[in-house]
What does this fold into?
Amino acid sequence: MMKKLVIAILVAGVLSLFVAIMPTFAAPVPDHTNFGQQLNASQCNDGGAPVINVTFSVTNDADSGTLGNAWAYDAYNKHVQVWQQADGTYCAVVKYQGKFVTLAGPSPNAAVTGGQVGTGVKGTFEGGYIATFDGMLQSGLQTRGNLGSFNYACDTHFNCPGLFDWVDTYFSGVTTFNQPYWAWNYHAGNNGSWVNAGTGNQGDITGN
It folds into this structure.
């Protein structure tokens, strides 16, 4: 799904742009991250109400693995909350919950495991990130409630003509965009589980 480089400049909102190759920690079953602790309002909220609190659904989002290849197509619900901080910058909590269907080729953690995955393996995932950034909030936009559905229509080269980038949509003049925390858990039953996180990748999803 696109993940997750810690970045110092604004990038597009496709998950695949966030991918980072991180070391694997040997474990028969990956340790899943604690999203209840990490992805909550206390990470950003200094007492004020969020300036953005929206949800939307996404289909056909290409998900990238540790070799940079598209290994699956994702469909998910996304929840974006943004607070303005005392110094005028912004802090966001962004959550994802959805499902994926694999493409034949290198597995998501193939850079470490050398694994392969077949076409049509189905699973679920959840996760998200914390972001801190500067910029100016644009006026006249819907900042509460459900924004509807977006078909990213990505190809396997991560060209996504239907991309909805919430940062570019809601903010101008963004010069820094940092992600102090990001993590996604993937579950595919007998085909395995994969944790893709800023603290390291664990596990893999392989087989047919």
About this structure: The chain has one domain: 15-203. The longest strand covers residues 70-84. The radius of gyration is 17 Å. DSSP finds three helices and twelve strands in the chain.
